[in-house]
Specification:
single chain, about 475 residues, alpha+beta, Immunoglobulin-like, 8-stranded mixed beta sheet, 6-stranded mixed beta sheet, 21 strands
């Protein structure tokens, strides 16, 4: 495999894929775990003492440690968020929490089946209420027309909160969700909005251990929780005689039990929880938006804002899927990406292939033939040359990017490859860099990238998309 310079987020170093595990020496891992222990122990100390000024103390420590700037930014941002939410200042903070089921992928991370309103004061949860959107959305007036594919495929004539995350940019989605909340007569004014995918539940249960809930059979653990909850709210509630309007109360009960366990964690458990939540932030399984400008800037610098990079002016790729009416089929749908850029021609060209494999064997309560609205975000001055399995193409521009959109259908037990060929700006031929941004809620997507340079030589990269990637 050829060497190619790349970076995850802002990390940049020479990379040879087959020796990645050799890249990091014993010294690296010692430094990493020492820094983690220092920072996370400091945060734990703050949790328990609720002293002011912990952020600056941690920043002073980090300034003397041999770690790169991107790691410092993330640790500092983690401390800043904790400081804002858990500070002992007699001020109540109110958060809107969106629960996104990424087994039914949407542009912002997953279908929003429920949301929570969480109030914190002096480092403690004052109240936490959850709402089933199948009930709440009935309070939202039928006055907003939904985006094209929702109207076209789902035949829904009004836009509601459950479909509010139709942008790949989380700040846009957060503001839209709050707008719908107030349209439904919600009375709270929020300090911030947090979106979490179902993957975060599995992460937390790795630390809490299995949880049983009175009135519901079985236990929820990190291995079975997502599927068990899905079955409970889609099928089992009927067998248990639970009214359909109350079927998602199990989520509130589970959240309350998790809250009790988290706030009784030992120091080691809190360190483990912080480490695993840091991983979820980097994967965009947790996305943050705060109205405090300084805090939001810290979050953006750490790449936790779920933002589409509108400032990037070189080659760019972001594929954005929206499962529309296919139930929880994303549990079965596997994706892979192949991207070829040819700089040897007068006009640089890109050839993108996205393969969808629907691995389910038959239709049931959880899956159907896959119906997806795919948008591919590319540089603004690109233009489409040819396409296959990408019919009735829609075009648009936002975030300083152009996108191509199309409805893609993949029947159960089949695979389909979408092919899109397009021209890139001529300037890329002499000054090439690529940024790939990850869609929230989609993890572990394999990608092969091939670059044919202006002199005809070729560089190849194979990897997994679990965060934003920059190739230089």
């Amino acid at each position: 495999m050829h060497q190619f310079a790349y970076s995850y987020h802002s990390h940049s170093f020479a990379y040879s894929y087959h020796i990645i595990m050799k890249k990091y020496s014993l010294k690296f891992w010692v430094i990493f775990w020492v820094v983690s222990a220092v920072f996370l122990s400091g945060w734990y100390f703050y949790w328990n003492t609720q002293n002011k000024g912990v952020t600056s103390s941690i920043e002073n420590i980090l300034n003397f440690l041999p770690i790169d700037d991107s790691q410092k930014i993330q640790y500092q941002s983690f401390a800043t968020v904790g400081d804002f939410l858990l500070r002992n200042d007699d001020k109540e903070k109110t958060l809107l929490v969106l629960f996104q089921n990424n087994m039914e992928i949407r542009p912002g991370g997953g279908f929003i089946g429920a949301f929570g309103v969480v109030k914190l004061k002096n480092g403690k949860v004052v109240s936490m209420e959850t709402y089933d959107l199948s009930n709440f959305d009935m309070l939202v007036a039928n006055i907003l027309t939904p985006p094209y594919p929702i109207l076209e495929i789902l035949k829904v004539n009004a836009w509601k909160m459950r479909d509010s995350n139709f942008s790949p940019d989380f700040a846009v989605n957060a503001k839209k969700a709050e707008e719908f909340y107030h349209m439904g007569q919600g009375q709270e004014n929020f300090d911030g909005v947090i979106a979490v995918t179902a993957n975060v539940l599995s992460s937390i249960l790795k630390i809490t251990g299995p949880i049983s809930i009175d009135g519901y059979p079985g236990t929820y653990n990190s291995e079975n929780a997502i599927l068990s909850l899905e079955y409970q709210v889609e099928k089992a509630f009927e067998q248990q005689g639970i009214d359909r309007g109350e079927r998602k109360l199990v989520m509130s009960d589970l959240a309350n039990e998790i809250e009790k366990r988290v706030f009784s964690f030992t120091v080691l458990q809190k360190i483990e929880l912080a480490k695993i939540l840091l991983e979820d932030l980097n994967k965009k399984d947790i996305q943050l938006y705060f109205k405090d400008a300084n805090l939001q800037k810290r979050i953006e610098d750490a790449n936790w804002a779920g933002a589409v990079d509108s400032t990037w002016e070189k080659d760019y790729l972001m594929t954005v899927d929206a499962n529309l009416g296919s139930f929880k089929s994303d549990y079965y749908v596997k994706r892979s990406i192949d991207y070829i850029v040819d700089l040897s021609k007068d006009i640089p060209t890109a050839k993108l292939k996205i393969t969808y494999e629907h691995t389910a064997k038959q239709k049931d309560w959880m899956t159907r033939d896959y119906t997806d609205y795919l948008r591919v975000y590319v540089p603004e001055n690109s233009w489409l040359i040819a396409q296959n399995n990408f019919d009735d193409t829609k075009f648009g521009s936002e975030f300083g990017k152009k996108y191509f959109g199309s409805i893609v259908r993949v029947p159960i037990g089949t695979s389909k490859t979408v092919e899109i060929n397009y021209a890139l700006p001529q300037s890329f031929r002499y000054d090439y860099e690529l940024k790939i941004q990850k869609q929230a809620g989609l993890n572990d997507t394999p990608i092969n990238f091939h670059l044919i340079k202006s002199d005809g030589s070729r560089k190849d990269f194979s990897g997994i998309i679990n965060s934003d990637i920059i190739f230089k």
